[in-house]
Design a protein that fits this description.
Oligomer: single chain
Helix content: 55-70%
Number of strands: 0
CATH class: Mainly Alpha
Strand content: under 5%
Radius of gyration: 14 Å
Distance between the termini: 36 Å
Length: 96
Amino acid sequence: MYKEGKTVAEIATLRGFSPLTIAGHLATYVGSGELKISEFVAEEKVQQVLDYLSQNASQQLAEILQEFDGNYTYGELQFILQHKKWLERNASFDEL
């Protein structure tokens, strides 16, 4: 449905799920590389969270939400964490 142009909110309504559930499902596809993070979260926001994660051991969503004082939604963080996983799986040995 997303690839047909429907928004997260539209899919949630049609499927009878919360938008957060749909975002979680779509985030999985960001983690697999099938969808691009830029379709869901602005590059600046992605980079801010990635920078934070590189300096902090915790990757608990609640702690990240608190750190950024409401400037990110839970859904955005789901996308970013999945994107981080994709980056880690696809990093070359030179980058490690």
